[in-house]
Amino acid sequence: MSDTAQGTIPTNALLGDVLPSSQSSSIESATHLFVSLSDLVQESIFYHPEIGLHLDTLSEVDKSSLQALLGEQSSDEHFVSTLVSRIESSILPQHKQVRVCLSDADSYAYKALIGGNIEMQEVNPVIGVRGVSRFASAEYTHSFELECKVIKQLRDKGIDVEIVVPFVRALSDAAMVIDRLAVQGLPRGLGGLKVLYCCDVPSSVLLADKLLQYFDGLVVNTGNLTQLTLGVDIHNEALESLFNPDHEAVLMLLSQAVKAASHANKPCVVYCQNLTDYPKIQEMLAELDSVQVLAAV
């Protein structure tokens, strides 16, 4: 994900690397690293984070697959140690910021993992239990605790990790997740800990001025924002032609998010997969000097 077509990315962009990446090399000028725990779980963990609490519900095939992955470790130990190792090994000297985005995956993605039967059935997973609503649910509290342990271990190693909270849909979400992080030993501000939030839905942009009172910056996830602004499921091939981050409505929201962060004097990160395919977003970013860009491919 981290490699880019450098010739078409705005030259003023503060480029960053993304983990996991489909590319073997990093961007030479990258100043920051963005880590997606959801993608890392799918790439390196392969099983549902709650699986240790539901071993008796697994099929024999799942039990065998899980045992082959874990060896002598428990699922919780393997989950935390594997993610800590992957993240730590990907941090380069030029990375001035390391931001770890808590899980934003939906139940559809979780169901594809070993032990996916743990997941509740949802009619519309894209707009279902994900992000803050997942962290706050009784069914998935343990997953949230494991992700917090990953961040705490990284910080205990002296790595100044910043947290990114996905799918903040309302002001109540902001207050709730800040409290829940504090309960897990990750209070915002302690030891310089910064907590940003992700603009995945239009409400998180429209409320940005108020939400930034709870957070230390924002990340615009243009993929999620495009889906939920235009009402287009990116996994539905029949609607593929309608998915367009260059759509005027998406650009308006992106501009509003950038302005809100600038007004609050807090960082704004724009995460856009295949940025080189979207000239209008490129043009907008070229006019900005303070935005950090994750131009994933």
Write a concise synopsis of the structure shown:
With 297 residues, the chain is α/β, with parallel strands linked by helices.
How would you describe the overall organization of this protein?
By secondary structure, the protein is α/β, with parallel strands linked by helices. The protein has a single domain, classed as Phosphoenolpyruvate-binding domains (TIM Barrel, Alpha-Beta Barrel). Helix content is 39%, strand content 13%. The protein has helices at residues 37-45, 60-70, 75-90, 107-111, 132-135, 141-156, 171-183, 202-206, 208-211, 222-230, 248-263, 279-286, and strands at 14-19, 32-36, 97-101, 161-165, 195-199, 218-221, 268-271, 291-294. Strands 1-2-3-4-5-6-7-8 form an eight-stranded parallel β-barrel, surrounded by five helices. The longest helix is centred in the first third of the chain and has 16 residues, at 75-90. The chain is globular. The model is unreliable at 1-7 (pLDDT under 50). It comes from Vibrio algivorus.
